[in-house]
Amino acid sequence: MKKSAKILAVIILAAVIYSLIPVTCLYLKNDPVQYTNDQAADKLKANMGEFFEFIVTSDCHSGLALDDSASLKSIRHMNREKRFQKAPIDFVEITGDVSFRGSAWDYRIFNGIRSLIKMPVICAMGNHDNDGDGPNLFKKYIGKDEMSFSNRNSYFIVLNNIVGDLTEKQFAYLEEELKKSLAYRHRFIFTHKPPISPYQQSWYRPELSPWAYAFMKLCEKYRVDIVFTGHEHMFKNGNYGGVRYVTSGGGGIIPHIPAGDGGFLHYTVVRVYGDYVDYEVRRIFPPLWEFFAYYMWKDVFYFLKAALF
Ligand SMILES: [Fe+2]
After folding, report:
1. The CATH number of the domain where 149 resides is what?
2. Does residue 7 form part of some domain?
């Protein structure tokens, strides 16, 4: 092997080892203090003014090294968002599947990951957060699975739809909350499963369920600005009935969907400037060791599939 090739190989190997350091430190870290959704929302009460931002992510699926390593890299970028100095970033919303499979280990690791986010974090419940002893652990580490809170000129509703449905009681609750939200300039909903599949090639077809139609009609009636979801491990957005639907489910889990279709590590930054609301997706390059272990091969697979079949 030529000397230059050897030097390059050593540099790449060193960079790969370096990219493993954050996740190793996470596993050696002592348990940080836990806090609940209510405690996070309390921190927003003193916020004033009509210009702010918040971050939405989902499906970090904590507890698996591949996912945790990617989440940590994503968090590093989130914490650096403030460098743009445009508006305060008030909070981070994780729209469910914070744990890999709802185990005590998963929640413990999630608590460590959450503690690294420099903004208050509010979470919705995902279907995997309910696995095993998940419901008790969710209560312990996160608190309520349904809640509402206000921040400046906006109202936020967190819903639990992990079974892929909403009960009549939940619809009544949602409508009451939407009525309250009319006193605010903007309203946003955070829930795990989207009411309409953002990806036509997905096996997930919620739009065939009665709850999805009723939910979307309610959002249209009360002029919801954006419904944020996860569940599908990708970024995809759409506009139906004047309501924007954003699926931002690439918060750490290794995505199986092609990168070109939205299957990449990312989070979404939402900007509220008075009457105006928009968002940007931030695509994050995965940790180098993970790129070589998984991401690279995924896209090689899809490239070959497209080229050969
Ligand atoms: Fe998920």
Report:
1. 3.60.21.10
2. no
Among residues 3, 119, 123, the alpha carbon closest in space to that of 61 is found at 123
CA of 290 to the centre of ligand 1 (A): 18
The answer to whether residue 108 is domain-embedded is yes
Give Cβ neighbours of residue 32 (< 8 Å, ≥ 6 apart).
111, 112, 115
Ligand 1 center–CA 193 separation, angstroms:
9
In a domain, 97, yes or no: yes
What length is written for the chain?
309
Distance 308 CA to ligand 1 centre (A): 30
Q: Residue 169: which domain range?
A: 21-286
2 inside domain: no
Please list all protein residues whose beta carbon sits less than 5 angstroms from ligand 1, which is an ion: 59, 97
Asked if 160 contacts 124 with a C-beta cutoff of 8 angstroms, the reply is yes
Distance 132 CA to ligand 1 centre (A): 16
Give Cα 98 distance to the centre of its chain. Answer: 8
226 CA distance to ligand 1 centroid (A)?
Answer: 20
Phi–psi pair at 277, nearest 5 degrees? -130, 130
The residue assigned the tokens 């995902």 is: 126
What domain count does the chain have? Answer: 1
What's the 218 CA to ligand 1 centre distance in angstroms?
25
pLDDT in tens, 17-48: 989 999 998 999 889 999 999 999 999 999 99
Strand partners, 151: 154
User: Can you name the residues that pair with 62 across neighbouring β-strands?
Assistant: 99
With cut-offs at 50, 70 and 90, classify the pLDDT of residue 2: confident
Residue pair 153/184 in contact by the 8 Å Cβ criterion:
yes
What are the pLDDT digits (tens) for 70-117? 999 999 999 999 887 778 999 999 999 999 999 999 999 999 999 999
From the CA of 93, how far away is ligand 1's center (Å)? 15
